Amino acid sequence: MTCFDRRDLGLLLLRLGTGGVLAVHGAQKLFGWFGGGGLAGTDEFMESIGYAPGRQSALAAGLSETGGGALLALGLATPAAGASAAGAMAGAAAVHAPQGFFAQSGGYEYAGYLGLTSAVLAITGPGRLSLDHALGHLVNRGWMVPAALGVTAAATAAVIGGRSRRLRERQEGEQEALFREEDAATS
């Protein structure tokens, strides 16, 4: 009898792929690696899409993706890692949602898939080919799954809600300025 089976191997591959992609995206945001903007460029981008303050938003997204992705790949603290990455991807999906589902149209397909996969890994656990298993699941307890997902869901809802409010206020301000310009032109 072996110490692992096909399920464990499948979870390892899923963790390595998903975690690796997330970690690379986070490294773009944090360090400017792989053609990314680093914190300075990501700061400006976050502000432009309504996530403010931009620096803290860039840091939170970068750490959630890099840290969550690396921990998922290692299979360490899997509930927290998966929840953190899923939260970051929910924030990204909110940005892409107005373009619809498909990524080829700028939609949320890719962010949604990475977020779903991260959440599923948080729920299913990392399998036996993981650091969590090797460490006796010290940071992968059953109670940690709903706690991590619940805290992340609440924080993500607050962040996305704040972004929506800022975008609405920005749009209202732009419309008001446009009306004033039109009034001034006709006066």
TrEMBL record:
GO terms for cellular component: plasma membrane. It is a multi-pass membrane protein. It holds the Pfam family DoxX. The chain crosses the membrane at residues 70-95, 107-123, 143-161. It comes from the Bacteria. The keyword RNA-binding does not apply. Keywords: Cell membrane, Membrane, Transmembrane, Transmembrane helix. The keyword Transcription regulation does not apply. It is found in: Cell membrane. Belongs to the DoxX family. This is RpiR family transcriptional regulator. It comes from Streptomyces minutiscleroticus. The lineage of its organism: Bacteria, Bacillati, Actinomycetota, Actinomycetes, Kitasatosporales.
